[in-house]
Amino acid sequence: MTSDATPSNLDGQSVLILEDQVLIALDIEDMVLDLGAGVCWVVSGAVTALTLLETKRPDLALLDFNLGGRETSEGVADRLMDLHVPFVFLTGYGDGLVVPGRFGGIPIASKPVTKATLLTKIALAQDRFRSERMV
C-alpha cells in the first residue's frame, strides 16, 4: 500500500490509544472503532501504556505526544519502535510540535483530528514501518 492508497477501514486491528484527556480519548476510540478496529486499549499515561505493552502487542498506536504537561509519550514511542508497531503522534500544538530526531518521519496529526486525516496518517505510519522491515 502506498501513502496514496488510504485504507477504508482498520480491518479488525488492535489499537493502543494514549491520550490524557478523557473526552478526546473517547472521541478517538469511537472514531477508530467506527473505522473497523477490533479492539482499542485506551490509557492516559505513559507508565500504563508501557505496562500494557508488556503483555499486549497492538497493530497500531495513536499517541498524544504531550501528556498533561507532566510527561511525554517518548518512552512509549521508543518501545513501539523496538516492537516495530506503527504509530502516529497526536498533538494539540498543530505544526508547532517538535519531536526528537529519532522520531523523524513519524506522522503527526493535529487535534481535533478527523477520520479522513487519521486514516491518511495511519497509512503513512504503516508504510513507514513496512518499508523499514524490508531494509
TrEMBL record:
The chain crosses the membrane at residues 35-53. SUPFAM superfamilies: CheY-like. The modification 4-aspartylphosphate is found at residue 64. Keywords: Membrane, Phosphoprotein, Transmembrane, Transmembrane helix. PROSITE patterns: RESPONSE_REGULATORY (PS50110). It comes from the Bacteria. GO terms for biological process: phosphorelay signal transduction system. InterPro entries: CheY-like_superfamily, Sig_transdc_resp-reg_receiver. Residues 14-126 form the Response regulatory domain. This is Response regulator. The lineage of its organism: Bacteria, Pseudomonadati, Pseudomonadota, Alphaproteobacteria, Acetobacterales.
